[in-house]
Amino acid sequence: MAQLDFVPKKNDRQQEAARLAALTATGILDSEPEASFDAITRLSAEYFRADTVLIGFGDESRVWIKSSWGEQVRELPRQNSVFEMVLAEDGPVVVADVSIDPRFSGHRRHLRRLEVRSFASAPIRSSDGQILGALTVFSCQPRRQMALDERRMLESLAEMVASQLELRKLRRNISTNRLRPTANLKALSKTWPRPCDLRHALERHEFVLYYQPEIELATRKIIGVEALIRWAHPERGMVSPMDFIPMAEESGLILPIGDWGLSEACAQIQTWNLLEHGGGSPRVCVNLSARQFSREGLADHVEALLHQTGISSRQLGLEMTESSLISDTSTALEVLGSLRRLGVSLLMDDFGTGYSSLNYLHSFPFDVLKIDRSFVGRMAGGDQAFQIVRTIVELARVLGMDVVAEGIETVQQYRLLRDLGCRYGQGFLFARPLPAEAVTHLLRLPGRLLPDPELSVSVEY
């Protein structure tokens, strides 16, 4: 689905919240492409002689494709999309020739390998009339205006999708009621934050990124930073990610929150590239959740951000834990390969805590291992943790990978890691996670060298 030069009408927040609630109730965003919709896309393609047909559902930031005919697509940005046009019009949208339509002037996009010249799209509605998605037929050629009977046919096909969706929702509710006791539902409703709280935080720009420096242990030079999300709540103050990320994962909101974090980090790299004293931005590493990582369109999204901000791919690092890879190794291989071709750094976070980490090192193209803080924290107090750290450092050396030790808090840990040949590290001993402005100050230090913690342990920034 092409991105279009189109600014939708501003939706009422309550209406959008109701739409998203209706969408969440279907559970469609947490599912794989739906085979039950394939007959509809195929029938649409035959009837309209289309080159590509897509059935997609739009959340806060993305359009998720659950069935396609012709061009295979999994996800698309929501901004300036056909879905937003349908949402703004509150009904079908037909464009016979994008080359002469003024809404598309100077803004051409391609559906990957397919050039879109015309399309028609009809809304997929919930039982209460909320627009959850759209059925869209695309053509590589300009077409005549759609006749009334053709428009009615497109709307009927979209209604068939809606009927399938309602059946799916009914099956899901029956299954959920069997598996989840009523008491658990009541307890869940009392938890904070609720999904609506997270949506409001996104709308009100309450999320912020802090950055913790990663240093070269031998020189104490800042070689990168890790981006860490915080919630600057107007009443609760600064909220730790441990208090809201689980709900974001459960509700599916981790995807728009993650998209925001990745975009914000790229924008910050762009800002640091313009520092007066030169040197450009250090590598900024962003953590990916399992849901983000399982998206086949992740590499396309990252590539778009790189082009949009004009930053170098080597300035961006993506961190993922072993649990992100376990559920679907074939998808993981494809996604990692696509990211590697872009030139971004790939880091395995919390290395050593999973039972199959060594197997992944042989299978996946990681550049950096991050030694879990649980091993670093115990290495001075027992031989087992020390031997594990030494083994990881040696393994990385043999495989030609870099190592970053997390959670360095004491001078003794610092010395042991240097003696073992660990090149990089991060932790409170050097710097806590800091706002971007404070990191900017550190990047302006001569040589970007942090003070020696062996001389002064309690350094404030």
Description:
This protein is an alpha/beta fold and 461 residues long. Helix content is 41%, strand content 21%. The chain contains 17 helices and 17 strands. It has an eight-stranded mixed β-barrel with strand order 9-10-12-13-14-15-16-17, surrounded by four helices. Strands 3-2-1-8-7-4 form a six-stranded antiparallel β-sheet, with helices on both faces. Strands 5-6 form a two-stranded antiparallel ribbon. Helix 10 (298-309) packs parallel to helix 12. Mean pLDDT is 84; it is low at 1-10, 178-189 and 457-461.
Show the helix and strand layout:
Layout: H1 13-26, H2 38-48, E1 52-58, E2 62-69, E3 75-77, H3 82-89, E4 93-95, E5 110-111, E6 114-115, E7 118-125, E8 131-139, H4 148-179, H5 182-189, H6 195-203, E9 207-216, E10 221-233, E11 237-239, H7 245-251, H8 254-272, E12 283-287, H9 290-293, H10 298-309, E13 316-321, H11 323-326, H12 329-342, E14 345-351, H13 357-363, E15 368-371, H14 373-378, H15 383-399, E16 402-405, H16 411-420, E17 424-425, H17 436-443
Parallel strand pairs: 10-12, 12-13, 13-14, 14-15, 15-16, 16-17
Antiparallel strand pairs: 1-2, 1-8, 2-3, 4-7, 5-6, 7-8, 9-10, 9-17, 10-11
Helix pairs in contact: 8-10, 10-12
